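Hi D.,

Good news: the full-assembly prediction came through. Inputs first.
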Amino acid sequence: MNLAWKDVRRQKGRFALTAFGLGLLFAIVLAMGGIYRGLIEDATLLVDRMGADLWVVQRDTRGPFAERSTVPADLEDRLRVVPGVAETRRFSSAIIQRNHHNHSLRMNLVGLAWPWDRGEGLPLAEGRTLAQAHLEMIVDRSLGLALGERVHLGNDDYTVVGITKGLLGSGGDGVVCVNEADASAILAYQPSEALRLEREARVSRLAHTELDSPANEERLRGDEGILPALAPPPTNAILVKLIPGARVEAVQRTLAGWVEVTATSTEEQRQFLLQGVVEKSKRQIGLFRALLGVVSGIIVALIVFNMTAAKAHDIALLKLMGAKTGVVVGLILEQSMMLGGLGYAFAFVIAELSFQYWPRRVVVGFPEFAGVAVLVTVITLISSLAGIHRALKIPPTLVLAG
Amino acid sequence: MEPREEVVRADQLNKTYGSGHTAVRALRGASLVAHRGELVALLGPSGSGKSTLLTALGLLNLPEKGRIALAGQDVVVNGIAHGDLPSLRRSRIGFVFQKSNLIPFLTAQENVRVAFKINGQDGVGELRRSQELLDALGVGERSDHYPEQLSGGEQQRVAIARALAMAPPLILADEPTSALDSHRGREVMDLFKRVAHEHGAAIIVVTHDQRTLDLFDTVFEMEDGILAPARSAA
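Then the structure:
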């Protein structure tokens, strides 16, 4: 006969409700760990998916994800002749936010180097890769777009031809892949009024230089492509794939002599992201988890204390009958463990059923579940001390007081 | 005639609550002896010290002075315990109270079994023994009911069954019939007499009910902490 279970059985509704409340709390603790892991996976997903050995970016920057980087488009051709390099392709990435069917669509725009890269390396769940040079896009499922749906970006409508699953940028935004030229067009797109104002600004700046002349002013008022130095940056980075057997360090040493670029390995890119993008979030989430752990402990302690207080008369009776301390301690401890266990079970179910619908990706696996299980056990054990302390102070003569 | 086996002996118990001019002397040299099979009544007005004496004999509230012996062995001498008092309560003393004091989350049968459980016995034998006790006390058919589903008299019978579970030589009852009507009250006292004689237990009952005194073997009266024999049928 288990006294703890018998007591729970008689008030199972209240007990289950209390455990459900705790379950919600434990689920949040679990989610914090999952969000952290999701942050790491999201942050490094694109770097891992692009399949490059080297990322050639603007000199002394940690681009293209951790900070802004701009490199000339022709760098792609120059890198192709470096010993050890098998192939190169341009890469651009930027966060854009556009209105689509009256709601805001925030996405991480990535340019694929058509025709060599049509998105074959992407985790496609539906549809196909890019099949034509322009106006097609592959989007992540998290953006909520459907195959065949048209999205207005820049000055054009793009058709969704493929849908990926779990392809998110370092900020957790769904990735949209288009042709590199389309990406540049989307990013460089400005409405007519903005272009007119920019041209006026250029002419104004020219007036303060020794290049000021009617001929130059005429050029500045024309298409920006006429003066390449004034044109927008063509790309953020060049991705380099090495020939089999070539050493990353050797190619990096060669490129170290190029004054305008820095070559980083994929692992270095990952570290930039983890140290730059994720580090503060990691500490913040760690702090939240610690605080939630303390709050959970206090709540469990209060619940156990109140459950014990409600049974004071029965505990006094057991003591009066000569029950050993272990019987009373066991009653409190077992009930605490049942509460913690049921709360954890609720948290598990909540995690399984709801985490997939959370706005940010929550990645929970065995390490997170096991970690929270240990945390719940420790919290429950420590918290039950409050109840045990209360129980041990109950005098057996309390029964006689009526 | 064989000498009767002594179950409990109290010698010159003194107990004072508070100190200075607010001190109340609850027990003033109270002494009594109860034997196997003896039904003892403690009479007296409220505040006379009956419950204090009962809790002292139950090893719950130790007197500052005097001696308590169980089966001839000193267990409390001048406020100092000699032995493991909870263990002695578990194995040698049963309690019945004014209210039945059943554990509300246990059925009648489980309330009896709990006495075995706290002694580390919780097997099939104890289950059967619990049911036998309930049957013997006339509440066997109510064994699956919770206390709130039982009448006052049935609850008291279950409480008596629990007190008898470990077959203790001493049963202490504090006004066990005060919450019952006179008919039910007499039934319970009859039950005590039967239990005392059949189980050979010494039963000490604090009571105000003068109508059932004919059932008792020994009657003590208490006033202002002083205990005096009123009558002995032994």
